[in-house]
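Instructor's aside before we start: the two examples that follow are unrelated to each other. I chose them only because their records fit on one page, so don't look for a connection. First example below.
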Amino acid sequence: MEETIVVKCGGNAAVDPLAVCEDIAALTRDSRPVVVVHGGSADIERLAGRLGVESRRLVAPDGVSARHTDRAMLEVVHLALAGLAKPRLVAALSAAGVSAVGLTGLDGGLLRARRKTAHRAVVAGRRVVVRDDHSGRITEVDAGLLRALLADGRTPVVSPPAVAEDGGPVNTDADRAAAAVAAALGASTLVLLTGAPGVLTDPADDDSALPVCAVTPSGPPPFTGGGMGLKLVAAREALQGGVGRVLIADGRCRAPVRTALEGRATTVVVDEAIGAAR
């Protein structure tokens, strides 16, 4: 079996999931094993609006923004990802000839996480501690389950929630989930698709995309605008977990995954490796 590629298909409304699925189908026809990890921010926002659930963001002191997942929002996240985004992706992959299997992190304990007891955030210029946030950080991935599906010719389609240590569900960032999956599988490449041509020095200017973006081994990411903060954190975690390379790429083009693999993307490196990447 060739080296595994993990593709994170984001929830950005600009990303065309059908184009992503057609591209993944082309890769699987070439016998390249692919695992898809997805979010669904656009679906979450729409469903939250329909159900009257307030959607809020928490901005950490380092500028990284994350969804505030109270108990009501956790239900919305689960419904949106497992009931809307995942069936859409699985159906599109199946229509393209891919034998896709949809899984949340709860299925078979695929994704296990440590529940956050508190979340530090900045609100109106003041640092506060938020304690009603039902989110967690992934600590374990059942790579054996994913490898068994790949060996059987299946394409896993994975999303949060994850299982916390107390057995309950917790939301987890889909980019960081993709990083954890890629590291657990020893993937050759993690492709994080987004609604921009890569990491932008100016979120309003697509022409400011970087060919290479260096992140430090710890500390805040160099760019946080346009939702890029968590992607860079995820990229760092993947690289530190042994993933061969991480690409942040445009999910809006016709063949987004293969285009990224061919070099039209931002390659993320940990700063000690930037010389080798160039």
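Example two begins here.
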Amino acid sequence: MKTVTLAGQTVPAIGIGTWHMGDDPRQRSAEIATIQAGLAAGARVIDTAEMYGSGRAETLVGEALQGIDRQGVFLISKVLPENASRARMRASVEASLSRLGTDYLDLYLYHWRGRVPLAETVTELQHLQADGIIRAWGVSNFDVSDLDELWALPQGANAQANEDLYHLGSRGVDYAVLPWQRQHHLPLIAYSPVAQGDAWGQHLTTNPVVQQLADKYQVSVYQILLAWVIRQPQVLAIPQTSSVAHMRQNLAAGELTLSPADLDALDQQYPAPTHKQPLDVI
């Protein structure tokens, strides 16, 4: 499987997303089984956030991790903008740790920009790291201007990742954000890498070229979409699923390499941007 170096650790380039998990009690057993199946199949990264279900996703992940070697899991959570301050961040991360049933996070992300000055947020993230509550920190939903502002801070370049929306139908970060991150050796975490099953109208799974490639490699259309996202180094995809079978398929996409001709065909259907675009956020 393709790998990514994230906060000094080598992890598979496809992880486990948890947005929308933990909301339906009827799905709880299936969701826990899916996370555990993903870890058993080789996944290491679990991405969650205090925002997801107002903590319910973190609680679900904590239940799924019971009895599993914590050292084998790279656990990411995120702090809400209103909690990203000197006065509130420590209580926020401690609540996340309690729900997750762990005493540290491998990576803690500032979920998106809010009213708290960025310098204050970075300072507090550094304090949490120094105390061992988090092993590393990063950001999410940052555009190039945000990254420039971050890097201008004395400790801003200590960020270990930026998590943005990225999939075949949303390629805005290809123009400026990804080149910036490659230049500064900052990995990208791609959320909603299969466009939430076409929930936003990109029609990726019904596109004839995507379907032809799925037939060619005898894989699902979702595996083609994931292979496209991780086609370049230092990009980690975190698809979410509540199906054990889909989870295993997602992870298997980490072993699929699309040819240059395949990529050209997909570019014809979903062209790369030719100018700077506003950052897509959902």
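The mean pLDDT is 96.
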